[in-house]
Amino acid sequence: MTTNEFTLLFRRRFSMAHRLIAGDSVKCAVPHGHNETVSVKLEAVDPAPLDGAANMVESFARAKATWHRWIDGHVDHALQLSHRDPLIGYFREHEPEKLPMLLITPGDPTTEALAACMMAKANALFATETSPLRCVEVEIEETPTNTVIFRGVPEHHLDAGYLGLPGAPWWLRGDMSINDL
Ligand SMILES: Nc1nc2c(c(=O)[nH]1)N=C([C@H](O)[C@H](O)COP(=O)(O)OP(=O)(O)OP(=O)(O)O)CN2
Question: Residue 145 falls within a domain, yes or no?
C-alpha cells in the first residue's frame, strides 16, 4: 500500500453565534457571534500514485461540494448551543420554525467540540457519497487570535448518547442535519 503523500486542504468561512454556559465566564455565557474559518485536510482512503493522465487524488469540485453545501446551507448563521442550554426550550416554545438552525453539541459548543463534530460529520458525508477521501484534520479559526486544530478521534470526545436517542447523533449521520431535536 502507498502511503498518503498528498493532502487536500479546503477553507470555508461561516458566521455563527454561541454561548458557553458550563464555565464561570459571564462574557462567554452571553450569546455572541464570530466569523469563523474552518479548514479541513483530506486524504485518500486508499492512496495511490498519480496515474499520469488526470493526475488527481480527487477533483477539487467533487471533493468539497457536499462539505461546502453543509457549511454554507446549515452551519452558516446557526446558533450553537449546549444540549443542556435552556434556550433550546425557548425556541421549542416560541420559535419552533427556527429549531433546524440550532447546532447542538454534547456540552458547551466550544471550538474544540465543534472541531470534533465537524471531523465526524465530514467523514459521515464522505462515507455516504462513497468518496475516496477522509478528513484527517480540522482547523477552526474562531477569531484572529484563537484557533483550534483537531486531528484526533471524534468518538473519544463526543457523547453519542447525549440525548438518550436510539439512533446515531447528527455528527455521525451523512445528511445535512446539525441537531437531533
Ligand atoms: N478552549 C476554549 N476557550 C474558549 C473558547 C473555546 O471555544 N475554547 N471560547 C471562548 C469564547 O467563544 C470567546 O468568545 C472567545 O474567547 P476570548 O479569547 O476570551 O475572546 P477575545 O476575542 O476577547 O480574545 P482576545 O484575544 O483577547 O481578543 C472563550 N474561551
Answer: yes
